[in-house]
Amino acid sequence: MGDTEKTETVTGRSARGSSRRKPKKSQLPYAIVLIVLVGALSWFLDQRDNGTFWLLLTGLAFGYILQRSRFCFTASMRDPYLTGSTTVTRAVLVAFAITTIGFTAIKYGYFINGLPIPGMSYVVPISFATIAGAILFGIGMVIAGGCASGTLMRFGEGFQMQFLSLIFFIFGSLWGAHDFGWWKYHFISKGKAIFLPDYFGWLGAVVLQLIIIFLLYVAAEKYQEAKSNH
Predict the structure, then answer these.
(1) Please, which residues have CB within 8 angstroms of residue 9's CB and are 6 or more apart in sequence?
(2) CB under 8 Å to 118, separation ≥6 — which residues?
(3) I need a surface site. Which of 46, 93, 96, 109 has the fewest CB within 10 A?
């Protein structure tokens, strides 16, 4: 068989294969109906508990942004090893830099006015539980294919794997909350809480953290360039 006949045969098969494919059905009507139902439900709940509508609206906005940007903390740690891309990694670092400045400004505003600094309950001791939890959570989110935000976003997209992940996410959270007292008494309380402004001052803490983020950003960029050259 000549090259021309082979080409015609392959072309014919491709044409027949493409003709068999059914055009994808538009999901826009379902989306409109769902938005209307969610809006009606949020309005109903808002009548009983003021503020529910805006909370739901904020959640939908964040979900849309996550879905369109494919922003995921898991991808920021996984992609450099799997694909060599650090695009999401650098995006996360930029987000860290922005939130560092924003949250420090808020906390410092309370501090200079002699008010209780918000969020100090999250400044917890560093202990063995921190290392163990980080390793277990890192392994779990890579296997599941998403962290908390990524799991919720992909669950909304209809991924069955994320539905299973969400069930165990809830189960693990409830189990962890049940045993948290034991962990706190035996491990967490044995560590030391570190609040950077106590050691470097407010300005020094911000500068130090931004320098670390910048160095990680440069390292991520160099890493991707090295991978792309191979």
Answers:
(1) 1
(2) 106, 107, 110
(3) 109
How many residues are recorded in the chain? 230
Assigned token pair, 100 = 């560092």
pLDDT tens sequence across 149-199: 778 877 777 777 788 888 888 888 899 889 888 888 888 888 888 899 999
**Which tokens sit at 226?**
């090295």
pLDDT at 22 over 70: no
The tokens 């779990």 sit on which residue? 140
Count CB-CB contacts under 10 A for residue 141: 22
Predicted model pTM: 0.67
**In 3-state terms, what secondary structure has residue 13?**
helix
For 36-72, what is each residue's pLDDT tens digit? 887 788 777 777 776 777 777 788 788 788 777 777 7
Q: Taking the CB of residue 96, how many other CB atoms lie within 10 A of it?
A: 15
pLDDT of residue 102: 93
- Please, is 212 exposed, middle or buried when counting C-beta atoms within 10 Å of its C-beta (0-12, 13-18, 19+)? middle
Query: DSSP string of 161-204?
Result: HHHHHHHHHHHHHHHHHHHHHHHHHHTGGGSEE--HHHHHHHHH
Comparing 14 with 29, which gets the higher pLDDT?
29
Amino acid identity at 203: L
**Domain extents in the chain:** 26-69, 70-229
